[in-house]
Structures are given as structure tokens and as C-alpha cells.
Write a structure and sequence with these properties.
Number of strands: 17
Distance between the termini: 59 Å
Structural class: alpha+beta
Mean pLDDT: 94
Largest sheet: 6 strands, mixed
Helix content: 25-40%
Low-confidence stretches: none
């Protein structure tokens, strides 16, 4: 067992990191773990001050300085170096089209990192053809998730603004990644809390077997039953033989977004509940099952320290609801809320252990699943705190597709910085799900959510008929 590496203390991986290493093993394209994003502002920047702000942010954010190494038995470890070796680069896209600039950044997002003892981020200061300036950041998912990316980029901007503008305070300290990691590792080492969480999930799994709902109906499940000569089969194959992926984005305007948000405020539910209700009702409509499962991501950032410690903290679990058509839309939403709250309390549990146990209780052929898709809602934006001190200066953020995914379909819903409207980002395997199928899903998802938000006392069956 490794204890130090290059003079630094090494630590085991967290459960969230193991989850990424776990599916990386099955994926021929190692860039599957890349997250690429850009943040640009409609103002001239002092590049030297920006460069200096990036260096300061690197010092304040220890997850940026994570390195990975393997011991002689092939077990992965991590450690944090004192100083980030990578220098911020500079790239000027002036004179090119925006399409060409974005194509270049997409290209950057498709280059995997060297995992052993090397930096796991790349930062490029950019000048884009539309007169905006800022930075492009590429990070490996094993050291950062979307929330830590946003937190880190915001830190850079706030340090920059503190230098450049009067009356802009220096940002509050980031929290320690290692301190949070130690808590996670203590939990994993057989704590009472872990035992309780395991009991909760085992009971949930043993209750009964879920059933697969297809994007366009029960065709995939029927085909699988036919192939395996098992009419009672409840799982299906929904991925293709290729991990090549695309990203299709649908934009919901500001005004309809506000209507959904005020529904959530009025009934004290999160937008995630409304999205889950919309999606599960769509699958209920298409498959005729009251029983629907969708993978959901849980950010595990409840405390201030967790919010500001960086790293990757997402745990993803199947979220199964059995809601009959005679229940009202609002009753369904409340069932989802209560169930979600319960799951949040146990969300530190290791998802790999969850799936391992489920495959023992319901042994299926490898590759068969009950969940047609995954959902993440990302409530955190740069707008809510951090950039309002720039006054009327406009800024843009953009996420870039890395070209690979091990899932058939992954939906991430985020707020746009320009107007706070919603972007529905569908990352999908090109051979498993088509753009046309996504348009159909998005169209009905919106119809269901708006019909339900406007008439929360209609039954689910009535809503299904009406849309």
C-alpha cells in the first residue's frame, strides 16, 4: 500500500471517484471523463491580472491540484501537490467565425488527460470572435463536477474584479477538499451511518423488481424478452455498441421558465421534482406502466464547506416511482418530493455498491438495465452570486461535448446566464437515441409540465389524455 508519493501524503479514492473509474474501465474513449466549459465577458480584460487571478485561485482550491497514481497492485490513489504546474495558455480567435472557435474548443474537450502524476485541468484564456473575453476550462470529472467548476471559475472572476474594480470584496476562502475527503473516507470505513444507509437501499432494492420503460414504448423490452425467451423479463438493453455521443440542446424561454419556477415556489417543491414528474409521466404515457425508474444525480453539497470544497461529490441512484393514473399531478409531485428527501438522507452510500447488490438480487445479463435515462438539474449559476457586481456587463457560458458517453441518454437542465431561462442539454449515444426522438420527448415533457403546473388537481390519467 502506498503511503506517500513524491513526498506527499496519498489518500484512497472516494466513492464518487470510484464510480468514474468504474465506468472508465468499460469505455474505449478515455475522454468520457472530460468536462469542458467556457466563460466569456463582454469587456476588455487585463490578461496579466487574469493570469495572476488564476494562479491565486489555484492556490485557494486544492482539488485543482489533485494527482492520481497507482501502486504496484494497480490500486489508484490520490494526493494534492502544493503548486499547480500548468500555466494558463492564451488563444485569440479574432478573425474566425464563432462556429470555428467552438469547434476548436470542442476539439480540446476531446483530449483525455494523462492520469498518472499529471495535472487534471487545462485552462486557456480566450478572446472570441464576438468581442467577448474570458477563459476555457477543461477538467477531469474525477477531480471536479459541474458545481466545483462553477465555484472555481467564479473564484477567478471575483479575485480579478477585486483587483480591477473598487468596492469589490476579495472572495471568501474556499473549503478544504482533503478535509471533506477524510470525512467521506471515515464514513466508508464501516461507520454506523453507512450501515443505516446500506439497510435503507437494500430494503428498497428487495421490495420488488423495477421495469424498463422505453423512450418510444415497450419495443426494446419486448425484443429483449423475445431474444432471451423470457416473457417475464423486466430489464432491457438501451445502449448501443458505440460510445460516440452528441449533445443536443433545447432552450426554454425566460417567461415559461418563470411559470415553472413560480409553480415550484408556490407548492414548496424543487424544480427537480417537477422535471422528474414530467419525465416519469412521459414514460407512463408511452409504456402504460405506473412503475417508472430514472437515474438521478445527487450533488451532496448541503453544507457551506461541501459547497466550496471542490472535487467531485455526485452520487447517482435510480429513482423509482409507482404512481397510479388516478393520482393528481400535485399528489404525484409530493410523493416524489417525500421520496427524494428520504433518499437525500442516505445519499452518501456508494452507488457502485448499490448496483452490485441490485444485480445480485435480480441477476440479468450484463448490459441490461431498468433506467432509460439519467437526470441532473444544476441550480447553481454564476449569476446568483459572484457576477452581479459587474453591473450591466453581459457574459456567456457554454459547455462542450467530449464526444463519448457510456449511457444512452443523460439530461442536464441548467439556467442560461443571459436570461435565466432553462437549457435542456441532452447528451446521448448517437446510435442509441436520435435527435428526432429527443425533440419528441422534449415536446411532450414541456406539455406535461405546463399542463400539470396550470392544473395541479388534474389526475395523471387526464393529463396523459390531454397532451
Amino acid at each position: 500500500m502506498m503511503e506517500t508519493r513524491n513526498g506527499y501524503t496519498v489518500y484512497p479514492l472516494s466513492a464518487a471517484q470510484k464510480f468514474h473509474f468504474f465506468y472508465l474501465n468499460f469505455c474505449p474513449k478515455k475522454e468520457v471523463l472530460n468536462i469542458g466549459t467556457s466563460l466569456t465577458i463582454e469587456t476588455d480584460l487585463d490578461w496579466n491580472v487574469l493570469k495572476d487571478s488564476i494562479r491565486k485561485a489555484d492556490e485557494r482550491c486544492d482539488c485543482i491540484r489533485i494527482r492520481f497514481a497507482r501502486d504496484e497492485d494497480g490500486v489508484w490513489y490520490q494526493y494534492v501537490v502544493d503548486k499547480e504546474e500548468r500555466e494558463p495558455e492564451f488563444y485569440d480567435f479574432t478573425g474566425q467565425t464563432m462556429e470555428a472557435a467552438e469547434k476548436t474548443m470542442r476539439g480540446w474537450t476531446m483530449v483525455p488527460f494523462e492520469a498518472q502524476d499529471s495535472p487534471m485541468t487545462r485552462l486557456v484564456m480566450i478572446r472570441t470572435p464576438d468581442g467577448f473575453n474570458g477563459m476555457y476550462l477543461l477538467a477531469d470529472h474525477r477531480i471536479m463536477d459541474a458545481q466545483s467548476l462553477i465555484c472555481y471559475m467564479r473564484d477567478i472572476i471575483e479575485i480579478y474584479c477585486n483587483t480591477m474594480y473598487e468596492n469589490v470584496p476579495y472572495p471568501k476562502d474556499m473549503a478544504s477538499y482533503i478535509e471533506q475527503l477524510k470525512k467521506d473516507l471515515a464514513y466508508e470505513a464501516g461507520s454506523r451511518a453507512k450501515q443505516r444507509d446500506e439497510e435503507y437501499f437494500h430494503k428498497l432494492i428487495e421490495a420488488s423488481e423495477p421495469i424498463y420503460n422505453g423512450l418510444q414504448g415497450s419495443g426494446q423490452l419486448e425484443a429483449e424478452r423475445e431474444r432471451l425467451k423470457n416473457p417475464d423479463l423486466r430489464a432491457a438493453m438501451n445502449v448501443s455498441d458505440s460510445v460516440d455521443a452528441d449533445l443536443d440542446i433545447f432552450h426554454l424561454e425566460e417567461e415559461p421558465t418563470k411559470r415553472l419556477m413560480s409553480f415550484c415556489e408556490k407548492y414548496h417543491v424543487s424544480l427537480t421534482c417537477l422535471l422528474l414528474m414530467g419525465l416519469r409521466t412521459y414514460f407512463q404515457k408511452m409504456n402504460g406502466n405506473d412503475d417508472v425508474s430514472i437515474n438521478t444525480a445527487i450533488a451532496r453539497r448541503a453544507t457551506l464547506k461541501e459547497k466550496r470544497c471542490g472535487g467531485t461529490r455526485i452520487h447517482s441512484f435510480p429513482f423509482r416511482t409507482i404512481i397510479s393514473e388516478d393520482k393528481t399531478f400535485l399528489e404525484g409531485i409530493y410523493m416524489i418530493r417525500d421520496q427524494q428527501n428520504e433518499m437525500f438522507r442516505h445519499a452518501n452510500y456508494d452507488p457502485v455498491s448499490y448496483f452490485t447488490y441490485r444485480s445480485k438480487v435480480y441477476p440479468n445479463e450484463p448490459g441490461l438495465t431498468y433506467e432509460p435515462m439519467s437526470l441532473t438539474y444544476q441550480p447553481m449559476t454564476l449569476q446568483e452570486n459572484g457576477l452581479e457586481q459587474l453591473g450591466e456587463i453581459h457574459y456567456k457560458t457554454k459547455w462542450y461535448q467530449n464526444g463519448a458517453t457510456t449511457q444512452a441518454m443523460y439530461l442536464t437542465v441548467m439556467h442560461r446566464p443571459e436570461d435565466n431561462g432553462l437549457d435542456f442539454n441532452f447528451e446521448h449515444q448517437i446510435k442509441a437515441v436520435s435527435r428526432k426522438q429527443l425533440e419528441y420527448l422534449y415536446y411532450y415533457l414541456c406539455k406535461i409540465m405546463f399542463k400539470g403546473a396550470e392544473n395541479p388537481n388534474l389526475s395523471i390519467g387526464e393529463i396523459i389524455k390531454l397532451v
